[in-house]
Structure to design on (484 residues):
């Protein structure tokens, strides 16, 4: 992606603007299914000079996960003004003539997302405040009226069908993407089919809600990002995802590197989330680990087939034995 | 020949970290390079023990296949398990050991729906033994590559 391409696109979208300048264009690490690019854009509007920081989320050549960009874009739009901090959305563009591949553009929010940096700095003394906001935002997401927000298009399962739908989805992806037989994951699938919980309510499920997918500035969360796997389902799916061992960035048992599991459950319920069902969370934790392993298997295939040159895909595949060990512990 | 494969990988890892990494400015390129450095270290770590690890795993999986063939009630699967259980290594090439390993893991994967929720003690014990082996193997691989975990 080049600054001239970005400037040409902005000129197309803002025909009244002149002297458009794009600077500090750089790719940001991370993102399971889309490239993330940041830049500063300035332009002239009449006699005044205007500008803002922009984020471009562009379809990759190959990804860890195939997701629908318009779903993510529409959900970001629907969440404006709900109290869930999300960036303002500008444009969804599918014509490849601008940046080779489809993309969408949103406002760049202030803050740091890297979990390693956040935990290393212990959130600059605001750890407990950030932990509370993380819990509050999750409970808020789960309390939103998705019908009123126009999110019916995501497809609502019945409370007794949330689990089956996700098992089917991830089983299909796993079997399609795995380059080698996966007995641990097959054992997990058999266990999941036999232990499906019934959801207490059907809610918006972020599906990748964890330390690392929200921005922190000072003592506040400024934005919740990476909604590419969002769907309607069992809120316990997000509760369990928060608890996955892979996100224990502090190197101890605190979930997300922030607070104990028991404290997380207590605060989540106090914030208005549905009662935490420990067995339900166990189910979703097994499914979450299966999903994470599957995402990494997808990256491994892209890497081995040469569709991606991203070394991170090879690296994350090496995390799978640890995830398998956790799955087998949970289903033993 | 010296430097051997492990020494070459470690040497390249060290050279990249010493001379190239400090020159790389953008966050994305640095992340990629850090992943490459980690991969070189992991591959070097695997290099010496890779064949032995596969030989050991294949031996354990054949024992599980033999045991499963005696207790599972699925004619086609039993036939495959018996055939696999009776095989022996004919080469220590990683590709051939891996191929045998994949065949064993594929057959044992087919056991999963038969073992889940089974009442018969022999099947329950088989499920526990399969999980125990796969978990021990996964933990060993993880510890080997990533070091011990302290997060419970």
């Amino acid at each position: 992606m080049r600054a001239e391409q970005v400037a040409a696109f902005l000129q197309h979208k803002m025909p009244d603007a002149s002297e458009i300048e794009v600077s500090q264009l750089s790719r940001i690490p991370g993102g399971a299914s889309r490239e993330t690019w940041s830049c500063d854009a300035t332009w002239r509007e009449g006699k005044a000079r205007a500008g803002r920081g922009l984020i471009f989320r562009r379809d990759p050549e190959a990804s860890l996960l195939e997701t629908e960009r318009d779903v993510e874009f529409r959900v970001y739009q629907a969440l404006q003004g709900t109290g869930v901090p999300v960036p303002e959305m500008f444009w969804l563009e599918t014509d490849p003539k601008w940046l080779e591949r489809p993309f969408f553009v949103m406002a760049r929010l202030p803050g740091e997302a890297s979990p390693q940096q956040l935990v290393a700095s212990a959130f600059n003394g605001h750890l407990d405040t950030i932990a509370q906001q993380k819990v509050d935002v999750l409970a808020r997401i789960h309390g939103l009226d998705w019908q009123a927000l126009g999110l019916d298009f995501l497809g609502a399962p019945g409370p007794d069908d949330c689990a089956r739908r996700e098992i089917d989805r991830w089983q299909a992806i796993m079997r399609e993407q795995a380059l080698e037989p996966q007995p641990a994951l097959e054992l997990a699938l058999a266990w999941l089919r036999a232990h499906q919980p019934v959801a207490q309510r059907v809610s918006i499920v972020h599906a990748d809600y964890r330390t690392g997918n929200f921005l922190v500035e000072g003592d506040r969360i400024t934005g919740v990002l990476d909604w590419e796997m969002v769907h309607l389902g069992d809120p316990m799916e997000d509760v369990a995802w928060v608890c996955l061992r892979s996100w224990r960035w502090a190197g101890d048992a605190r979930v997300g590197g922030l607070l104990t599991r028991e404290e997380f459950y207590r605060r989540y319920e106090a914030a208005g989330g549905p009662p935490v069902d420990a067995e339900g969370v166990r189910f979703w934790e097994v499914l979450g680990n299966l999903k994470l392993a599957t995402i990494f298997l997808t990256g491994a295939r892209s890497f081995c087939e040469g569709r991606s040159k991203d070394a991170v895909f090879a690296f994350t595949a090496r995390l799978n034995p640890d995830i398998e060990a956790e799955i087998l512990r949970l289903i033993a | 020949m010296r430097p051997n494969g492990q020494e070459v990988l470690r040497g390249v890892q060290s050279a990249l970290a010493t001379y190239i990494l400090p020159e790389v400015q953008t966050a994305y390129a640095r992340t990629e390079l850090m992943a490459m450095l980690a991969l070189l270290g992991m591959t070097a770590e695997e290099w010496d023990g890779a064949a032995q690890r596969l030989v050991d795993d294949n031996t354990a999986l054949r024992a599980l296949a033999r045991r499963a063939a005696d207790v599972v009630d699925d004619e086609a699967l039993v036939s495959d398990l018996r055939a696999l259980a009776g095989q022996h290594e004919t080469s220590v090439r990683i590709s051939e050991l891996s191929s045998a390993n994949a065949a064993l893991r594929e057959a044992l994967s087919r056991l999963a729906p038969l073992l889940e929720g089974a009442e018969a003690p022999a099947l329950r014990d088989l499920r526990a033994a399969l999980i125990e082996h796969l978990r021990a193997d996964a933990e060993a691989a993880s510890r080997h590559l990533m070091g011990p975990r302290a997060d419970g």
